[in-house]
Amino acid sequence: MSLLDLYAGRFAAYFAALADPDLLWLFVHVPKTAGSSFNAELTPLLKPNHHVFIDYARTAETPYATLYDEAVERFIAAAQAGPLRYATGHITGGHVERIQAALPQVRPVTLMRQPVSRFISDYRYQRTPMHPGHEKFRRDFPTIEHYLGQKGEWNKTANYLVPPHVRRAGEMACIEYVTERYAFVGIQEMYPLSLRMVTTLAGSPARPGARHRVNAPTPDNSVELTPELERSIRSHNALDMALYEFFAKRLASVRTELIAYLDEAAPLPKEARAS
Predict the structure, then answer these.
(1) Is domain 3-115+155-218+244-265 annotated with CATH 3.40.50?
(2) Phi then psi for 142, rounded to 5 degrees?
(3) What percent of the chain has pLDDT above 70?
(4) Backbone phi, then psi, for 105, in 5-degree steps?
(5) All structural domains of the chain with their residue ranges
(6) What does pTM read for this prediction?
(7) Does residue 241 contact residue 175 with C-beta atoms inside 8 Å?
(8) What 3-state DSSP class applies to 223?
(9) Could you tell me which of 44, 215, 46, 36 has the C-alpha nearest to residue 126?
(10) What is the pLDDT of residue 128?
(11) Beta strand 24-28 with 86-89: parallel, antiparallel or unpaired?
(12) Distance from the Cα of residue 119 to its chain's centroid
């Protein structure tokens, strides 16, 4: 498995290396990357499946991180007990590393989004009733500048995809880790192609249909993106910017040829074409 084959245009070799029907596809869901829609497309196609989730009601008594550690262990036990085809969750890079060590049949995939857009969308979403803690969030972060002051919210994409010891090693170490460990890195701004790639890898080429958890504009979640705010978001999320720019550029560089290859080797229904 190597993304380098994909980015070099060696499409046949890339798909052949991932053709095993016993692989377990793990969608690492970075918040506000169109992941809910992505998951809604994949879940009906890949069964049996497993959602790595926590009971948020328990966060009052048990730390969030502990609950997710427990959820990951339950997932590993379930995958070892019987074959699974697909799993997803808001798991972190450390969890992904733990899962891959325990389950060699796992192939992680993910979606990235332009970090400024992702950060703003994350802030806006958490101010809406779709987010369970939206009332407290509004009190704690009355403006996006308050939210940007939270170090724990910086470089969230890297946090979800790469374990801490690799993040500490810097940008190139993170890029190399994702390139080596992930079967595919989709780009939200190239969503139709990204979905087509993962469904093709899983043996069921599909086109986009569902849209879930879309931020509806309200007076409470509007954000004015000034040049100063954009610079600040970029500087506080430099690692995410480096990851996004690397993988978005690589996918864009083979986009035309890749669509042509898919049209020939794994065609969609006649009315569907990736864009």
Answers:
(1) yes
(2) -65, -20
(3) 89
(4) -85, -5
(5) 3-115+155-218+244-265
(6) 0.91
(7) no
(8) coil
(9) 215
(10) 74
(11) parallel
(12) 14
